[in-house]
Amino acid sequence: MTGVRYNFLNLAILLLTTLLFSGFQTTFWFQIFGSLPSPQLWLNLILYLILFRSRLEGIFTIYLLGLTLNPFTAMPLGILWLNLMLIFGLMTFIKKRVFWPTSRYFFMASLGVGFIYHVSYFLISRLFESNPAPVLFFHRFFEILFTALTAIPIYTFMTWVDRFTGKEILPESAGGDS
Amino acid sequence: MSSDTGKADFSIRWKGKHFQSNFSRKDHWNRKFFLLALKKQESPLNFLNFDLKKLLSILFILALPFVSINMQQNPLSQGWYDRPFGLIAAFTQSLFFSFSDGVRGTTTMYLNLINIKKDNFELKNQNQSLLTRLEAMNELQRENDRLNLLLDFKAHTKMELIAARVMSKDLVSDHNTLLLNKGTHHGLKAGQAVITVGGVVGYIFKPGTMTSQVLLITDRYSVVDGMIARSRARGIVEGKNSTSCSLRYVEKSEDVVPGDLVISSGLDNIFPKGFPVAIVESVENKSYSVSLKVDLKPVVDPDKVEEVFIVLNAANEDLSDRLSVGN
Questions:
Q1: CB of B194 less than 8 A from some CB of A
Q2: A27 touches chain B (CB under 8 A)
Q3: Which of residues 94-123 of A touch B (CB under 8 A)?
Q4: In this prediction, does ipTM exceed 0.85?
Q5: Could you tell me which chain A residue has the CA closest to the CA of B204?
Q6: Which of A112, B39, B104, B197 has its CA 20 to 30 A from that of B137?
Q7: Distance between B305 CA and the closest CA of chain A, angstroms
Q8: How many Å apart are CA B300 and CA B277, to the nearest integer?
Q9: Are the beta carbons of A73 and B239 separated by less than 8 Å?
Q10: Chain A residues with CB inside 8 Å of B174's CB?
Q11: Which residue in B206, B208, B303 is closest to A34 by CB distance?
């Protein structure tokens, strides 16, 4: 297979994973645990793209993922994209200053991205919506926590997918995992 | 025989006297007989040649069983000499009995334990299987009750309804939506009311071919026309968070108190008129506001909804009379 085909395979796996993760979170988790805050598995995928893809590829893939996620929520696509881009900008800013490609870093970044997501959404909602989002402190707190708990398995899985599809790893993200 | 008789190559001292014989020194048996002859010379009265001590000893040994037999003529009686031995024997036997009983008991217990463990395992499995079946039966019973209620409701209304099951919820916690297993293929359209027997759930938001997303009345984007059943005060039911909503645009002069039932007004012809929506939790009359601040609690808990009805045609049904009894 050529490099382009490998890239397509990687993207296809990524989109399929997003669908599976979203399905798991919205259906399986809901059917089993009811209203218990669920881990936002998709957010870890977004984080992985921010950390381990080039800027252009990252932006393109995140937009695509936004489209994939949109049917699972009542959140308007515009707000979803805006939120994802805000996360992208902030995490890229942090990545340029502090970055080491390990699962531990990914775990900490997952905590950070969870926090950024909720804060940015809360602010966007205040700015653009007539009936803004409520605080829901504990619900959001547990969501961030559960999301971070799933970070390492997702990181391991995604690095495996990248290796399997022969995905080119960015120079700054090259290195051994702990 | 005297010490000076003939040629002697064997001599012996017997009771201080010295005897000599011409027996060969190596002849052992001759020497024995020679000694016996000397002894006979020493005891001239024992002419029958008996060893009296030996004889008495033998007689005594032989007499003991006879004496014993004689003393045990009555087998039921126990002699005095027999008691200590009997006691010791009994004690010893008791000890051994206890020991063997203990060994047997331990062995039996061990064997029983093995059997008990096996039985316990089997019973546990059986119990688990029965509990699972019981739970499945209970769940079926509950489902049956719910479906019966739905059927009964459907049978007694002139509205055109379609039943659906809840599949999933929203991806993000900031929105409250549910996904139903019915879509445009089943005749669903955006804006159609979603209800249960208990009250209003929401309305169809994003209809898909085989599934549809329902915007719950608790979602921030949701608005439903409602009114207070008791005072007929009108307002708009707007979602707040996953567990509550509010009644907006209620004039300050209106009569609203906590506990009032909010029903659908039916003006939109989406929801049937007079269908329960929520209960008034609190009412605030702020001086700077033009309307009352009314907090509501939905009558239907969205987290516990499993089956719903989608109103395909409300047919201008008015349920006010039937449902306002409680107010």
A1: no
A2: yes
A3: 121
A4: no
A5: A74
A6: B197
A7: 10
A8: 8
A9: no
A10: 75, 121, 125, 133, 136
A11: B303
CB contact under 8 A, B171 and A26: yes
Closest CA to B23 of B40, B41, B35: B35
Q: How far is CA B219 from CA A25, B82, B280, in A?
A: 19, 102, 17
Query: Residue B19: beta bridge partners?
Result: B12
Answer whether B229's CB lies under 8 Å from B327's CB.
yes
Residue B3 burial (C-beta neighbours within 10 Å; 0-12, 13-18, 19+): exposed
3-class DSSP assignment, residue B249:
strand
Task: Determine the distance in angstroms separating the CA of B214 from the nearest CA of chain A, rounded to an integer.
Answer: 9
B217 to chain A nearest CA, in Å? 13
CA distance B201 to B180: 12
- One-letter amino acid identity for B61? I
Chain A partners within 8 Å of B172 (Cβ): 40, 73, 75, 121
Residues 6+ apart with CB under 8 A from A15: A64, A65, A68
- Determine contact: B213 vs chain A, CB below 8 A: yes
**What is the mean pLDDT for each group of 10 consecutive residues in chain B (327 residues)?**
47 66 63 68 58 80 68 61 70 74 82 86 90 86 80 77 89 90 90 89 90 92 90 90 89 89 83 89 86 91 86 74 48
Q: What is the pLDDT of residues A3-24, one digit of tens each?
A: 677 788 889 999 999 999 998 9
pLDDT at residue A114, as a whole number:
94
Joined together, the tokens standing for residue B28 give 């052992």
Residue B46 tokens, joined: 């024992």
**Tally of CB atoms within 10 A around A10:** 20
**Strand pairing category for B244-251 and B234-241:** antiparallel
Q: Is the pTM of this model over 0.90?
A: no
Put simply, whether B175 touches A (Cβ < 8 Å) is yes
Q: Do A131 and B238 touch (CB under 8 A)?
A: yes
Residue of chain B with shortest Cα separation from A70 = B171
3-class secondary-structure state, position B195: strand
Predicted pLDDT at A178? 36
Which residues are CB-neighbours of A158 under 8 A, at least 6 positions away?
A45, A48, A52
With a CB cutoff of 8 Å and minimum separation 6, the contacts of B169 are A26, A30, B176, B177, B178, B179
Domain range A3-165, its CATH number among 1.20.58, 3.90.25, 3.40.630, 1.10.1760: 1.10.1760
